[in-house]
Amino acid sequence: MFWTKVVLLSIIGAFIGWMTNVFAIKLIFRPLNPIKIPFMDLYIQGLIPKRKKEIAHSIGHTVETELVSIEEIIDKLIEEENKAEMISEIKKKIKAIAEEKMPSLIPGTIKGMIMLYVDEIIEGEGENAINELSEKLIHKATSKVSISEIIEEKINKFELEKLEAIILNIAKKELKHIELLGGFIGFVIGFVQGIVIQLF
Q1: Is the distance from CB of 19 to CB of 186 less than 8 angstroms?
Q2: What pLDDT is attached to residue 106?
Q3: Terminal CA-to-CA distance of the chain, rounded, Å?
């Protein structure tokens, strides 16, 4: 009889601990919309739906300040290899325009000398011009484009049901472990409580 009561209290404790954690996990997302508690001036709502705007702002700010900035994106786009390609393309474009626009009266040797001189100028000044242009582009982009605002807007528009499904799918094992841990802790508490009640 002694051990029957102890085991029974342990099972009840395990069930309560398990159910407590199941409800706690559910309350991260549910209810999606505020629900008024009758006869009280209180509303209950899931943690993420309630704090969605704050979470979106925090993620956006963290990404922009700690992970990636608009300057880094533009710098990545205009790397050394890209600069060489740009200079090559500029040369081709100028050659094509020059050949089309130069009067046919100009001898080929002079045209060649002019084009060679233009090539040297582009080769010498092209990288500086691209660097200057990229700096202007960065300045313009940073004043007009905000990564944090884009991320914040995207998160705020994201459907909570989809977000819930994604998180639950990714953290399925971990959440199951939390539920089982609640059951285990509840079992231990129930067991200790059962022993104490029976002895005293």
Answers
A1: no
A2: 66
A3: 15
Residues 103 and 32: their CA atoms lie apart, in Å, by 73
> CA 160 to CA 52: how far, in whole Å?
9
CB 137 within 8 A of CB 82: no
- Tell me the β-bridge partners of 43: 36
Spell out, as residue ranges, where the chain has pLDDT lower than 50: none
Angle between helices 70-77 and 108-144 (to 10 degrees): 160
- Sign of the CA dihedral running 120, 124, 126, 132: negative
> Any idea what the Cα angle at residue 94 is, between residues 92 and 96, rounded to 5°?
70
Burial class (CB within 10 angstroms; exposed 0-12, middle 13-18, buried 19+) of 17: buried
Q: What is the pTM of this model?
A: 0.54
Query: Strand ranges (DSSP E) for the chain?
Result: 35-36, 43-44
pLDDT of residue 198: 73
